[in-house]
Amino acid sequence: MMFKTVIFITIAIIRIEIIKGFSPDTTCGVSKGCFKSYECSSGDCTYLVTWYKNGDKITFEYTSTIKGSSKYLCLGFSDDDDMGDDSTIACKYVSGSVSVEEGYNVEETYTRLSNPLEKISNIVTSATGSIFKCSFDRQINSTNPKIFDLNTKWYLLIAEGFITDGVLQEHYAHKPPRTKHAVDLFGFEVITGKKLKEPTAKLHGLVMVLAWMVFSSVGLVIARYFKSEWSERVILGQKVWFQVHRACMVLVLVLTVTSFMIIILDAEKYRDNLEASDRNYLNSHPILGIVVLILTCINPIMSFFRCSPDDDRRKYFNWAHFIVGVSAHILAVINIIFGLQLTKAGVKIGATYVMYVYIAVFVLFEVMFEILKMRERTQTADAKNTISMTNMDHNGKSEKQSANSKFSRMRIFLLIAHLVSIGVLSLTVIVYILLDL
């Protein structure tokens, strides 16, 4: 029943996410020129800018999905296919309010014009559900050097980003979608933005999901609740639980270092992967990643210097090892959630919801393991008292063995349930990561 519930929740999340875009305009290329997102080809647009000549004006309409509490969609007019010295018109969404403004780019620095509606009229704006729109007329003729004359053909650029205190922040993509040639705004040309593939960011996230959602989860559970299992069996001279725990945590270390190197080698600068962020708290993603890497490296180093099991100081190592390991796991899971929300990752928000389900499931199993552990201690203590008080060694031992066998079966069942649940959730997140690759 539990497995069915987990699967139902994740499938429902995916279904909800799929319908979040909007349908393309069927008049594109017929009576309107259009600049549309790559996703429009599958009928699930994330942005669309249309235009047509209307007397001495050009009527523009912007449509965009909303991401977070603020977002802008900006159309730039340039004399080349690069950013810089561009005339721009932006449609801004901030907490339910939608507005239009003209601006100008000097290199990559945006400046709002002193009169941001100088050539703009007939503005109509709306925000419904996850979509916001702006439509307006822009005068064709202009002598203002920062408001380009639309009789001329221009390269068109699309930029999306978030807004802070009313000011447009750096756009999501390093190289925003742009046309390969100058566009005649009196025609009905249709331009499709390139798919913003970020395979390196996706690979980085995929490796971290495997490391922390799968191997770290298993390693932690095995070390904490299975030391008494298979006590008579060894693998290469070590107890089974220890070998499984060590193998999982070595894989966590190797995968974490590998993932870190993947993203660092791809980044041009420290904050390179934050330029796509649309929420301020996501700026902590690289910092948390470095902290997780340090904690992951500290634990195996500590293990080399641990004292023998019968040493009085061993308990201090056990606590330190536990605290460092659990802290790394918690921070890693939080950071995966942050990473999945970065626009550069190109992952839909449904993956974040699956991570919330993962946290709930992981905590639920931890609670069940702890309850089972406490019940086992209580019944073991009762069995020992029976032996001591009745001197019925044979019956007492049989009772104790029976109790141990029962709790062993229950632990194994919980472990299997834990592995299946974590496996389903991890696979769902991986599918989300690979979905738009």
Characterise this structure.
- With 437 residues, the chain is an alpha+beta fold.
- Helices cover 46% and strands 20% of the residues.
- The chain has 7 helices and 15 strands.
- The protein has helices spanning 2-18, 199-225, 240-266, 285-304, 314-341, 350-390, 393-435, and strands at residues 33-36, 47-54, 57-65, 70-78, 86-94, 97-106, 109-112, 120-128, 131-139, 155-161, 163-164, 167-168, 190-192, 234-235, 238-239.
- It has a 6-stranded mixed β-sheet, with no helix packed on it.
- Strand 4 (70-78) and strand 5 form a beta hairpin.
Question: How would you summarize this macromolecular structure in one to three sentences?
Answer:
The chain is an alpha+beta fold.
Per DSSP, the total helix count is 7
Strand order of the largest sheet: 8-9-3-2-1-13
Strand percentage? 15-25%
Share of residues in helices = 40-55%
Unreliably modeled segments: 1-19
Spatial separation of the terminal alpha carbons: 33 Å
The total beta strand count reads 15
Mean pLDDT: 84
Q: What value does the Rg take, in angstroms?
A: 29 Å
Structural class: alpha+beta
| Main β sheet profile | 6 strands, mixed
Order of helices and strands: HEEEEEEEEEEEEEHEEHHHHH
Quaternary state of this entry equals single chain
Sum up the overall morphology in one term: elongated
